[in-house]
Design a protein that fits this description.
The structure is a single chain. By secondary structure, the chain is mainly α. The chain has one domain. It is 78% helix and 6% strand. It is built from six helices and two strands. Strands 1-2 form a two-stranded antiparallel ribbon. Strand 1 and strand 2 form a beta hairpin. Helix 1 runs antiparallel to helix 3 and helix 5 runs antiparallel to helix 6. The chain is elongated. It starts with a helix and ends with a helix.
Length: 138
């Protein structure tokens, strides 16, 4: 398997991760017993630097930040997959920073989330690690 193919596979996984995250992060299962909390987050408004906001809006905004950054990561991975081996070898800082970013996301998913984001982050980390290593060897 080549680094290029792994970066392209990673790009598709990141796109799926971004879509799933965007569609699901605001879903609240009634079985969690969090309805009152969520309603409170939506209803409690306050002024912040001249804007009226709520905790639900903060939660939504930060969740959408994550979706946008996952989309950027998908584009970056696709671009890396299209680069010649010599170019990939010439940018080790980008390759390895990308790996470290997703290893950290895998750890955070394990600590704070559940199996779906953990699985996506873990597989993405493995793909990025392997691609970075293959690019260095090529």
């Amino acid at each position: 398997m080549s680094a290029s193919l792994l970066y392209r596979i990673t790009s598709i996984l990141l796109l799926l991760f971004a879509i799933g995250h965007t569609l699901a992060f605001r879903q609240v299962d009634p079985g969690w017993g969090a309805d009152a909390l969520v309603e409170s987050m939506k209803a409690t408004r306050f002024q912040v630097q001249g804007f009226s906001r709520s905790y639900w809006l903060f939660f939504t905004g930060f969740g959408l930040f994550v979706s946008v950054l996952l989309m950027f990561a998908a584009v970056l991975s696709w671009q890396l997959g299209g680069m010649r081996r010599e170019v990939l070898r010439a940018i080790p800082m980008i390759r390895w920073a990308f790996v470290l970013c997703f290893v950290a996301i895998t750890y955070l998913s394990w600590q704070y989330f559940f199996i779906v984001p953990l699985a996506f982050a873990g597989v993405i980390s493995i793909c990025l690690l392997t691609a970075a290593w293959l690019a260095a060897r090529a």
